[in-house]
Write a sequence for this structure.
């Protein structure tokens, strides 16, 4: 990075536009930026930092950048900083303007303009605009430089005071600075992540151990007293092995108990089998004895019922003979039933006939039916004509109904259409009024938010006015206290300077040279006068003055902030009182509410008008259609009347003396049906009488052949199906019972059992029940033992599986815990208790020390070498120690033992070395322009020459170094100078020793 030009306008102490041509200063390689205290030397460096990053270092940056503006600038001049530089081979121009509080163009008061930024690049002989966004410009510059603002201020603007403190600081302070410069937070994050991962894996291991212990407690419940649990907690080593060992012992004990239970069950089952066999024998004996007794009883019952059995057998024989006559009997019954039904039907048919057909036979009735059917066929045409006339009458009545309906429609439509114009005018008027209200509501809505903002700003303005008055009074009081404290401090300082001789004389000793004149004899040392002011009193007064100044600055800052807020609120609210604005706002809200309420009717009015227009179109169409239908109905009515006259003449001839053709046809249809039914019934009656006569003859012949005297006797001997089955069942049951009784009484085993004493079945059942109970108890014991073994096997397998699954997790925990302890510096093998971030910073510090030593050896004529030390300080951690090796004594000592001048050039070498390392760390961005701020006043002439030689050697790398100092001897040694001259109207920049 090389700086070319810097333009300042109304920035810091510079009230007018000042320009710095860095190209001319850099040509000399080494240039001096000097001027009296407070002239603005540091402000030049602040301007460079502000142009690049939009902010200045340290506390000089306010919240909005308003303090960057020069108090000497004209009110119409805006603060601006323009920096032209080359970085990464690109020539850029950056312009930044901080926020500016200026007078309003119209009206009293001030307004605040926002900060502005612009970035341009010089390409192809012309400047090209790149961006005007603060964020984009900041990201672009940071990416090109590869450094943050803090790194830039440490690397390019070398603050010697900071590095002197860094040189003497402890390891923690060095770690904070190096961490900001080298961005080692990621290594700290690694430590945190490892610690979090260790806690997470530890929790998972404890969770797994807790589950293992829970399984162990379940195994203990299943095993009873056969298992003892280890007294270990989750996370302790050896827990898994102890649980698995106890589980193995419990499983072995449970299997032994299972073997004993199975042997007991086998013995119980054997005893039960013997008892069951004895019970079976006893039950069989009792059954045989009961069977023999029952057979004897059944035999006596059969002998008592023998007479009834013989009668039933004879009745069954007669029924079998009657079965031969059954077909003839059934045929005769069917013929008689049929004849009776045919005679009844014929009688009913003749009763329905009209008079004149009483003596007619089947043929006469059939002939009369044919004549009536022929007459009915001749009325078919007249029936169709009558149906047509009925349809004509219905259609004529329908036309009359339609005519009445159309008349109603016409009347209603005519009445509605008569009021259409009035209705449309009223609805259109509603729409116009609602539309006007909507327009008015939109206009009022636009005014509402500005009015509300103005009212809020007015209230804020009134509140800030009161706060500003209070802050102004407090600022005046703070300023008075600060002036009083400053005068008191200056008085004490003047009194101390007047009596400084006595203070110096207090430290004189005989034989010791005087610090003022160098004499070893002190014949008349000065004495302290009454009321002498010592150093402590002056320092207390200075501290009081500084506290008062800080209080004054804080009160002025608060007053400035309140004035800015008041100006912004006044600019927005104007001079109108808040009460008046509140009333206007309320009136505006009321007007807006009324307008919205009136405008809400717009949609309803539009909808009503749309529905009314649709109704108008519908009514008009209805009226036109009704008129068309009326014309059509008139023609149709005339045609219907003519056709009905023709049909009436034809029907009068066809219906005769009946009321209608349909009535005459119905009468003929009923007559034809009655005659036909009567003829059929007469023929069927004649046929059934002949069949009945034939059936009587066949029945008499069948009864004689079967051995019965008359057909009636054969009919009496017959049995119906139910009686036959019941009688046969009685006979079969007798035979079955008789055979069964004979069989039982003939069985040898049964007869032998009957001769034995009665069986004791109850005793045998008690013995068998006792055996079964003992088997159940043994089976329950066996089942419990099996369940215990199965549960222990299951829980042991789950515990073993849990141990296997916990193995990788426990190994991961051991590995992570070891890594976390190592990176945190708490592990036993981390001998120096060095954290990971400290280790990385130690490597960077070692690089910085090596780079700084190259220049420190030249500055100290080869005497001093900076070395990195990783020794532990007391019981603390190590890694960021910094020592100096004195070649004259050959000993290594702490940097805090260096003198003031030695500390300066050691810190300068350290700053230059740190700049080189940070530059390389940032991606190797070349830094062609550096600034070194103060510290040269503590060097003697020889050391100053050596330091300047080192700085001048930087030109070998085509660098330019700017030294910021007010040491007079440097103005003689460095010819290229940029002088800051301060005056009552602001500071100015002047170049010396360059063209």
């Amino acid at each position: 990075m090389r700086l070319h030009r810097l333009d300042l306008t109304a920035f810091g102490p510079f009230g007018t536009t000042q320009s710095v041509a860095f190209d001319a200063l850099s040509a000399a390689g080494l240039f001096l930026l000097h001027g009296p205290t407070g002239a603005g030397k540091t402000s030049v460096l602040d301007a460079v930092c502000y142009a690049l990053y939009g902010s200045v270092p340290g506390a000089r940056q306010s919240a909005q950048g308003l303090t960057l503006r020069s108090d000497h600038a004209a009110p119409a001049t805006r603060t601006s900083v323009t920096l032209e530089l080359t970085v990464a081979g690109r020539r850029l121009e950056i312009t930044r303007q901080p926020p500016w509080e200026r007078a309003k163009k119209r009206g009293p008061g001030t307004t605040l303009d926002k900060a502005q930024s612009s970035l341009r690049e010089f390409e192809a002989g012309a400047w090209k605009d790149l961006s005007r966004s603060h964020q984009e410009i900041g990201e672009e510059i940071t990416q090109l430089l590869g450094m943050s603002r803090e790194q830039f201020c440490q690397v390019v603007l070398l603050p010697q005071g900071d590095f002197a403190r860094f040189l003497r600081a402890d390891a923690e302070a060095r770690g904070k600075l190096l961490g900001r410069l080298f961005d080692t937070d990621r290594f700290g994050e690694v430590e945190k992540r490892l610690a979090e991962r260790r806690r997470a894996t530890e929790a998972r291991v404890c969770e797994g151990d807790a589950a293992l212990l829970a399984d162990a407690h379940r195994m203990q419940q299943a095993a009873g007293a056969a298992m003892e649990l280890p007294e270990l907690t989750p996370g302790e080593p050896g827990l898994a092995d102890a649980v698995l060992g106890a589980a193995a012992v419990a499983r072995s004990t449970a299997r032994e108990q299972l073997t004993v239970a199975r042997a007991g069950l086998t013995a119980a089952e054997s005893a039960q089998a013997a008892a069951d066999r004895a019970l079976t024998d006893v039950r069989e004996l009792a059954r045989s004895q009961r069977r023999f007794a029952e057979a004897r009883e059944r035999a006596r019952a059969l002998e008592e019922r023998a007479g009834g059995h013989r009668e039933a057998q004879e009745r069954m024989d007669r029924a079998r003979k009657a079965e031969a006559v059954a077909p003839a009997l059934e045929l005769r019954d069917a013929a008689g039933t049929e004849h009776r039904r045919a005679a009844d039907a014929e009688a009913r048919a003749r009763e329905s006939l009209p008079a004149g057909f009483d003596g007619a036979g089947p043929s006469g009735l059939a002939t009369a039916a044919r004549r009536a059917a022929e007459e009915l066929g001749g009325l078919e045409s007249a029936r169709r004509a009558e149906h047509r006339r009925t349809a004509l009458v219905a259609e004529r009545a329908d036309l009359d109904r339609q005519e009445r309906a159309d008349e109603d429609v016409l009347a209603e439509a005519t009445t509605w259409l008569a009021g259409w114009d009035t209705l449309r005018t009223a609805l259109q008027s509603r729409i116009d009024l609602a539309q006007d209200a909507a327009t008015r509501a939109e206009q009022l809505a636009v005014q509402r938010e500005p009015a509300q903002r103005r009212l809020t700003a007015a209230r804020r303005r009134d509140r800030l006015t009161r706060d500003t008055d209070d802050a102004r009074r407090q600022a005046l009081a703070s300023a008075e206290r600060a002036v009083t404290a400053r005068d008191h401090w200056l008085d004490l300082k003047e009194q101390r300077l007047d009596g400084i001789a006595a203070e110096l004389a207090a430290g004189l000793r005989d034989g010791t040279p005087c610090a003022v004149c160098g004499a070893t004899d002190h014949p008349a040392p000065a004495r302290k006068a009454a009321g002498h002011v010592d150093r402590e009193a002056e320092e207390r007064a200075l501290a009081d003055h500084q506290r008062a100044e800080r209080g004054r600055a804080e009160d002025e800052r608060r007053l400035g902030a309140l004035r800015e807020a008041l100006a912004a609120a006044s600019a927005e609210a104007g001079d109108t009182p808040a009460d008046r604005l509140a009333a206007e706002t309320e009136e505006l809200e009321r007007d807006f509410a009324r307008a919205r309420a009136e405008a809400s009717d717009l949609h309803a009015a539009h909808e009503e008008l749309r529905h009314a227009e649709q109704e108008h179109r519908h009514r008009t169409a209805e009226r036109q259609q009704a008129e068309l239908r009326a014309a059509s109905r008139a023609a149709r009515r005339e045609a219907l009347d003519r056709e009905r006259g023709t049909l009436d003449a034809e029907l009068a001839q066809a219906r005769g003396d009946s009321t209608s053709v349909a009535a005459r046809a119905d009468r003929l249809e009923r007559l034809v049906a009655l005659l036909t039914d009567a003829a059929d019934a007469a023929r069927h009656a004649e046929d059934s009488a002949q069949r009945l006569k034939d059936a009587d003859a066949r029945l008499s012949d069948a009864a004689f052949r079967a051995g019965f005297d008359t057909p009636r006797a054969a009919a009496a001997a017959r049995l119906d199906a139910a009686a036959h089955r019941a009688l046969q069942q009685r006979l079969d049951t007798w035979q079955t019972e008789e055979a069964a009784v004979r069989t039982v009484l003939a069985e040898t085993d049964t007869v032998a059992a009957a001769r034995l004493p009665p069986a004791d079945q109850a005793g045998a059942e008690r013995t068998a029940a006792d055996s079964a109970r003992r088997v159940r108890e043994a089976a329950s014991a066996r089942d419990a033992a099996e369940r215990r073994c199965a549960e222990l096997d299951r829980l042991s397998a789950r515990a073993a599986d849990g141990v296997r699954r916990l193995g990788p997790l426990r190994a991961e925990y051991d590995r992570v815990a070891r890594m976390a302890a190592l990176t945190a510096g708490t592990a036993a093998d981390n001998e120096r208790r060095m954290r990971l971030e400290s280790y990385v910073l130690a490597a960077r510090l070692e690089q910085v020390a090596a780079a700084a030593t190259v220049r420190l050896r030249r500055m100290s004529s080869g005497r001093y070498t900076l070395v990195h030390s990783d020794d532990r300080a007391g019981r603390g951690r190590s890694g960021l120690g910094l020592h100096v090796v004195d070649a004259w004594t050959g000993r290594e000592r702490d940097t805090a033992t260096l003198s003031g001048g030695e500390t300066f050039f050691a810190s300068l070498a350290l700053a230059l070395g740190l700049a080189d390392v940070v530059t390389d760390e940032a991606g190797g961005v070349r830094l062609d322009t550096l600034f070194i701020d103060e510290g040269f006043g503590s060097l003697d002439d020889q050391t100053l020459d050596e330091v300047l030689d080192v700085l001048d050697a930087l030109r070998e790398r085509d660098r330019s170094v700017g030294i910021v100092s007010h040491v007079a001897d440097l103005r003689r040694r460095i010819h290229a100078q940029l002088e800051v001259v301060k005056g009552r109207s602001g500071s100015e920049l002047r170049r010396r020793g360059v063209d």
Remarks:
- DSSP finds 26 helices and 17 strands in the chain.
- The CA atoms of residues 182 and 918 lie 7 Å apart.
